[in-house]
């Protein structure tokens, strides 16, 4: 489930690039995506966990909604706009810097310095980011800099979402957490669009519907639910390791469907990021049992 979810999320950039080529703007894309995905999230939630949806404590409901707004509203806007500036393969690799960010945030919250192995993993990850973004070429760095910063900001929101979901999916279930987080994100995105564009949402041309449907069903709804359920079944540590299939899958799909290419330093950077994630998760110790 986690591997399938990683591939689903990797396909998101392919569909978005096709829609941009059909003159769909980033803000219209994310709003239509939210508008179409919201009823699908609720239909699946009512089918899988009808009772659990209406028995969520207020604190968990607030946490799930806030996490969704942060990651899948603000984070998604930054990510989809970044895809107008950089390649799909670069975007997906940079987004996978979130485990290092999780480690840094956890160390700050616990007021404990990270171990040497963790520091090694973080250094590998950010050395890889530098290579992926620059390719050891100043021109490539200038071309990727703005989009890369947006994706890294999105990775921060993803790290926060990951930490919140890890805590609450074990108490209220992955389905309920996902439904409420996606509801908060979708409502916020739709409200944000209409606050800036009071008129109705532009209609989609017939040629855009196949890619939009695939983006919503495959790259959004399926990816979110199967990943959340996979994390619930095997835990965050093993899920993070398995989800490293995402960047290579994105690079392969970018090459097959968009004609994207990555130079040797960027492939080395991708390997460093994936290696940093593996070191990070293989050296992570399980929490002590509760007293």
Uncertain stretches of 5 or more adjacent residues: none
Structure classification:
mainly alpha
β-strand amount: under 5%
The total strand number stands at 0
The average pLDDT value, as a whole number, equals: 84
- Binned, the helix content reads over 70%
CA-atom Rg in angstroms: 19 Å
User: Distance between termini?
Assistant: 33 Å
* Largest sheet features: none
Question: Helix count, per DSSP?
Answer: 11
Shape, per Cα inertia axes? globular
SSE sequence, one letter per element: HHHHHHHHHHH
Description:
There is one protein chain. This protein has 291 residues and is mostly helical. It is 81% helix and 0% strand. The chain has eleven helices and no strands. It has helices at 2-21, 26-53, 58-82, 88-95, 98-110, 116-134, 138-172, 174-196, 209-242, 246-258, 264-282. The two termini are 33 Å apart. The model has no long low-confidence stretch (mean pLDDT 84).
Secondary-structure map:
Blueprint: H1 2-21, H2 26-53, H3 58-82, H4 88-95, H5 98-110, H6 116-134, H7 138-172, H8 174-196, H9 209-242, H10 246-258, H11 264-282
State the main characteristics.
11 helices, 291 residues, single chain
Brief characterization of the structure:
By secondary structure, the protein is mostly helical. The protein is built from 11 helices and no strands.
């Amino acid at each position: 489930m986690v591997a399938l979810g990683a591939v689903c999320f990797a396909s998101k950039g392919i569909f978005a690039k096709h829609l941009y080529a059909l003159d769909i703007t980033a803000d219209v894309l994310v709003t239509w995506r939210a508008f179409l995905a919201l009823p699908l999230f609720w239909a699946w939630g009512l089918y899988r966990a009808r009772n659990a949806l209406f028995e969520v404590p207020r604190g968990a409901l607030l946490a799930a909604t806030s996490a969704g707004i942060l990651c899948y509203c603000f984070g998604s806007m930054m990510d989809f706009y970044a895809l107008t500036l950089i390649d799909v393969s670069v975007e997906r690799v940079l987004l996978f810097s979130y485990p290092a960010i999780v480690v840094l945030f956890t160390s700050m919250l616990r007021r404990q310095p990270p171990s040497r192995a963790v520091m090694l993993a973080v250094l590998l990850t950010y050395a890889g980011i530098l290579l992926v973004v620059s390719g050891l070429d100043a021109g490539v760095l200038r071309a990727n800099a703005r989009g890369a910063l947006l994706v890294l900001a999105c990775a921060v929101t993803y790290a926060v979402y990951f930490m919140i979901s890890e805590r609450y999916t074990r108490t209220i279930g992955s389905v309920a957490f996902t439904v409420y987080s996606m509801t908060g994100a979708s409502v916020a995105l739709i409200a944000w669009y209409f606050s800036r564009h009071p008129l109705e949402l532009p209609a989609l041309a017939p040629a855009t519907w196949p890619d939009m449907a695939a983006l919503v069903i495959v790259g959004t709804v399926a990816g979110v639910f199967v990943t959340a359920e996979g994390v619930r079944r095997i835990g965050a540590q093993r899920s993070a390791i398995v989800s490293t299939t995402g960047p290579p899958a994105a690079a392969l799909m970018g090459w097959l469907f968009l004609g994207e290419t990555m130079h040797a330093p960027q492939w080395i950077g991708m390997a460093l990021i994936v290696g940093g994630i593996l070191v990070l998760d293989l050296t992570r110790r399980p929490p002590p049992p509760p007293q």
